[in-house]
Specification:
Elements lengths: L1 H14 L1 E4 L5 H17 L12 E4 L9 H5 L2 H11 L6 E11 L25 E7 L11 E2 L27 E5 L4 E2 L9 E10 L8 H4 L2 H4 L4 H6 L37 H18 L1
Antiparallel strand pairs: 1-6, 2-3, 3-8, 4-6, 4-8, 5-7
Length: about 290
């Protein structure tokens, strides 16, 4: 797997996007679409120029289709995402899971960079990585995702010529991966059928996610997750001490008997723990 991660990471760093062919079996995607079909039908069309008046969107996918966990926890993708984000955080976090259906007649979406939702410095770090999983084949005609290759290198440019956009053809089982700094947008659908897909994105572990995971998956829901998935959706501290509950790792909420009184426990990086310990020893020496 290391060779595959390195190969895709190089493409992602160079172009701002890459495609993992047959990342999962198409039957897995077919089962997910079947689980989501009723939700697609019942969900109203979006409101607003950005989401699109001929588009449907809904989230909370980990509770709507069991096999979504296989996509969110895909080992190769997690390695790829960690390689891109861990230089700026200690752990990654789930940013959102969202199903998208672009209907016939939909206009192209405004080109954008997803990382612009956070008002921090741009160009010196990556904030998130997106993974688009097609439920139906993506083509230019049916609203496949438009991407501007290399746009992550000059993030001060808000728009680029439409003619420079590429639309990778991806089919169920493929995974389209792109950086939060890559200019992109859903395409216009001039075909006679809707285009369905799922986006799963991951962000720096110290950021507030797009989809508020702790409300989407409260403790009584997250109790059913594996420890690794629960940590990914936010039931884990990000050192130092960020995201705690009463000074404890929030995973304490997943137990069957949560104490009413708990001690606050340090969750520091090794360098911080060493500095704090040295300071305490120096103070004790002065007192002695």
């Amino acid at each position: 797997m290391t060779a595959a991660v390195d190969r895709h990471a190089a493409t992602l760093a160079r172009d701002g996007w890459c495609v993992l062919r047959r990342a999962v079996e198409p039957a897995v995607i077919a089962a997910i679409e079947a689980d989501l079909d009723d939700r697609f039908r019942a969900t109203p069309l979006c409101e607003g120029a950005f989401y699109g008046a001929r588009t449907k969107r809904f989230g909370s996918l980990l509770t709507r289709a069991p096999a979504i966990e296989r996509l969110a926890m895909h080992p190769l993708i997690l390695k790829l995402v960690e390689g891109m984000l861990l230089p700026w955080c200690e752990r990654i976090a789930l940013n959102l899971t969202q199903a998208i259906e672009i209907h016939p007649g939909a206009l192209p979406q405004l080109p954008h960079r997803d990382q612009d939702m956070w008002q921090g410095p741009k160009g010196s770090l990556e904030y998130l990585v997106n993974v688009m999983w097609p439920l139906t084949a993506f083509t230019r005609a049916n609203g496949g995702t438009r991407l501007w290759t290399g746009s992550h290198f000059d993030q001060d440019v808000p728009l680029l010529p439409e003619g420079e956009a590429v639309v990778p053809t991806v089919v169920p089982g493929d995974a389209l991966v792109f950086l939060g700094s890559t200019l992109h947008g859903g395409g216009g659908n001039v075909s006679p059928a809707p285009r369905r897909g799922i986006v799963i994105s991951y962000c720096l572990g110290w950021l507030k996610p797009f989809e508020l995971q702790w409300l989407v998956y409260p403790p009584h829901v997250a109790q059913r997750f594996s420890p690794e998935l629960a940590a990914l959706v936010g039931y884990a501290q990000h050192r130092p001490n960020l995201g705690n509950v009463e000074g404890q790792c929030p995973s304490v909420l997943l137990g069957n008997d949560v104490p009413d009184h708990m001690p606050a426990v340090d969750a520091l990086r090794p360098d911080q723990a060493e500095a704090a310990a040295l300071f305490v020893r120096s103070q004790m020496g002065e007192l002695g």
